[in-house]
Amino acid sequence: MKTSFQLKKTFRPLLLGTALLSASAFADVAYISNEKDNSLSLIDLKTLEVRQTIEVGQRPRGIIFSKDYTKLYICASDDDTVQIMDVATGTIIDTLPSGEDPEQFSLAPNDRHLYIANEDDALVTVVDTKDSTVLAQIDVGVEPEGMAVSPTGKIAVNTSETTSMLHWIDTETYELYDNTQVDQRPRHVEFNKDGSLLWASSEIGGTVVVIDTSNREILKKLNFEIKGIHPDRIQPVGVKLTDDGKYAFVALGPANHVAVVDAKTYEVVDYLLVGRRVWHMEFNSDQTILLSTNGISGDVSVIDVDKMKVIKSIKVGRYPWGVAVLPEGKGIPAQAER
Fold first, then answer.
1. Which pLDDT band holds residue 332 (cuts at 50, 70, 90)?
2. Whole-angstrom Cα distance, residue 124 to residue 120?
3. Where is the signal peptide (predicted)?
4. Cβ–Cβ < 8 Å for 60, 80
């Protein structure tokens, strides 16, 4: 375990647009990281229109809100830092030490400890967001990417793409206590609501596994088949689960589809055609719609969860990557409350 680290700060608080619309009293707002535009697109989820674009650091990828929704954390990968945006003003107010090339991260339930995957350093960096200190740097496999902390906050899981492993980390000791071999190039991990199951995608392997977190045994391996699409193009990346435990949605990368999986039977019930190179996804606050970022087509697909139908495509910046949703009424600027 490494503990030394040099803080690197960059500030890019430039606002693109004439009005400050970082948050709304009237609708959920989706924040989309545009990897090649160094920006965020903000989408009003009632009008389904882009309402604002904000310039951020270089190559933004993973994004996540603080638990109180007052801050947005941004992996500015090519700046080797995590930026902190004030949600009320839409400006970058600080940075966190992150290790080199931060890609994805997960915030512990205590709203304080941020677990960051450092792709170039084969490390997971744990940062205290309150005082901007590095608590630990944990050696993992080659090219770490996916990152998740369990709902209890006791377990963190990281994926290493080249090693094709999941790494299980004790969040009290910051020790790696187990590894799970999966198929080639695992990209993303997602706990179910109570933390009893972990879903993990393997991009090149073309599979998703469901793991019992109590013993770390693989319960099920899912395969995907779409008529007219070569198996090599079916590359699972993002995974999202409904809170009621009914469905899992799997982004299939260059297959340009989202798979809908019955989360009880593990059967694929549908494939939804979305934009090109679908990557990550997020629900709105009541889980009635699901958003997918489509990198090559530069848009976001809006999926009606009840109808299992894509209802709109929204053009954003170049290579949209991550997505996070600000619920209605959260992070409201003072002027919007009056």
1. low
2. 11
3. 1-27
4. no
Under 8 Å between Cβ of 328 and 28? yes
**What's the fold here for domain 36-326?**
Methylamine Dehydrogenase; Chain H (2.130.10)
Contact, 64 vs 73, CB < 8 A?
yes
pTM of the model: 0.91
Phi, psi of 176, rounded to the nearest 5 degrees = -80, 120
The tens digit of pLDDT for each residue in 250-290 reads 999 999 999 999 999 999 999 999 999 999 999 999 999 99
Token pair belonging to 291: 């958003």
Nearest CA to 301 out of 315, 287, 288 is that of 315
The 3-state DSSP class for residue 334 equals helix
Quick check: helix, strand or coil at residue 227? coil
- 129: closest CA among 112, 115, 153? 112
As given in the structure block, the two tokens for residue 232 are 């090599």
DSSP string across 150-173:
-TTSSEEEEEETTTTEEEEEETTT
What tokens does 196 get? 């009893």
